[in-house]
Amino acid sequence: MTEIDLLGTVAGTLTTLAFIPQVVKTWRSRSTADISAGMFVLFTSGVLLWLIYGIALHALPIILANGVTLALSLAILVMKLRFGLSPARVEERP
What we know:
Elements: H1 3-17, H2 20-29, H3 37-57, H4 60-84
Helix pairs in contact: 1-4, 2-4, 3-4
């Protein structure tokens, strides 16, 4: 692996790992009220295009990072659709 491939792999790993806390939080809370569906649709579309670009270039760091990021982003979108359709939770206040 070249130094530039290592750089791409580390960058891709960090930006991909950044999504894991959001996926976990969304799954546990079952709340997506504060997540913008429009932003995630645009972001997911961009990640899909990056994945296609990486495949066209045969660039493994781009393929791996965007493949995993796409899966995590789609998970959030699916939860947005699933949990967003149910009534919002209302916290009881004293």
